[in-house]
Each structure stands twice: as C-alpha cells, then as structure tokens.
Amino acid sequence: RKEVEQDPGPFNVPEGATVAFNCTYSNSASQSFFWYRQDCRKEPKLLMSVYSSGNEDGRFTAQLNRASQYISLLIRDSKLSDSATYLCVVSRYGGATNKLIFGTGTLLAVQP
Amino acid sequence: DTEVTQTPKHLVMGMTNKKSLKCEQHMGHRAMYWYKQKAKKPPELMFVYSYEKLSINESVPSRFSPECPNSSLLNLHLHALQPEDSALYLCASSQDPGLAGSEQYFGPGTRLTVT
Per-residue pLDDT tens for B63-79? Predict the structure, then answer.
C-alpha cells in the first residue's frame, strides 16, 4: 500500500464545474500537508498548504481530517487553466530532516 | 521571490560521459533537495542537504554524486549513467529543514536523456 493514495483520474469536467479530489495517508507521524499542481512536462508548483481548520484561497478550498488521515481539495468554477495533475503531499520526519511524500497525482482535464 | 533555477534545461549524454546538473536559490533557504521524476510518476526523493551537509541519501546508486558548495548552490554529478536514468531531475529548496511545515519550491528541472 502506498503511503499517500490518490485517485489517478482522469477527472474530465466542464468549465464552471466544481470538482473535489481526495487523498489518504497511512503514516500517522505525518506532520504537514500540501497540494501541488504540476502541468505537463513542468515542475510541481505549490498550490496551498493544508491546515486542520481548513483553508481557502480563491476558488480552492483544502481540508484536513487528522483522525481519518484524509485530505481534500475542492475547486469551484473550474477554468481551462486548472487542467493539470494535482499532487497530494505529506511531510514527515525522515530520520535526519523532514521529507515530502508524494501521492501519484490526480489528473484534471477541464473541457470547454 | 520563490525562484529556484536549474541548468541545463536539457541534457543528452552517453553512458561513458561525465556531466553535472546545477541548481541555485537565493531565498536564504537552508535545505536543498534532488528529485528524479519519470513520466506519469510523482517525484522521487534522491538527496537532501541540510545546512550544506548531506542529511538524506535515499539509497541512490553511486553513479549519482551530489555536492553542496555553499548554501545557495547544489550540484549533481553524473557518471556512467544507464538509459533507465533518463528522467526529469528536479531541484527544490525549503527554508528550514527541521520545520515540518516548511514549504518546498521546485526549479524547472533538467530533462536528461542517456543514450
């Protein structure tokens, strides 16, 4: 079982739709949580950190449930430019320093 | 400014060549990372430097040799690579290696092809 699990998709949605991605992690020692987006053949870019209280950045809302070891990302009013792979990422202590553990990513394709 | 730069953008090398990848950041970050990413896979951590010292080596073959000359620079020396080492090599940095919430910022990567 992978340490961070995501549905690989693809999620094909029309412009303007609301789409939700879910992610689970297995290591209870995970300390911090992030969503990154990665466009084809580009580097991952930090979308947002995820906090237990939930946090919102414009059309994007992230939630963390530590008890269930579950992270979510909600995108409202999808734009064509939102098409990308969304990576769920957790941070935990790697023995000497903190390290990021990546999920396999969820592919989103927003259709006109 | 959250910029991490990497050179070269593309590299083609033969299996007997020696080459180096370079990474630079001027954000005052004290942790720097090398990742390898194959197509349709997430990045895989290779090395972590914390305060210019190697703190994590994820059992990477010795044909990859990292170097951190100073707090802003990170190199990856390549020698006798195999075709299966062809991948996107990403550098990243974060402010504080001991702080779990410290966000990592990635460079654009070097796309390496080994022939």
Answer: 999 999 999 999 999 99
* Å between B18 CA and nearest CA of chain A: 25
Q: Which residues on adjacent β-strands are paired with residue A37?
A: A45, A86
In the block, residue with structure tokens 């990045």 = B43
pLDDT mean across residues, chain A = 94
Mutate to test the interface with A, among B38, B55, B95, B96 (most CBs of A within 10 A): B55
Complete DSSP assignment for A37-66: EE-TTS-EEEEEEE-TT-EEETTEEEEEET
What is the rounded CA–CA span in Å between residue B42 and residue A1? 16
Is the pLDDT assigned to residue B2 strictly greater than 70? Answer: no
Which of B43, B101, B108 has the CB atom closest to A102's CB atom?
Answer: B43
CB contact under 8 A, B105 and A46: yes
Does residue B106 contact residue B50 with C-beta atoms inside 8 Å? Answer: no
List, for residues B72-115, the tens digit of each pLDDT value: 999 999 999 999 999 999 999 999 877 777 889 999 999 999 99
One-letter amino acid at A42 equals K
Least Cα separation, residue A45 to chain B (angstroms): 7
Residue among A45, A49, A96 minimizing CB distance to B56? A96
Contacts of residue B9 in chain A, CB cutoff 8 Å? none
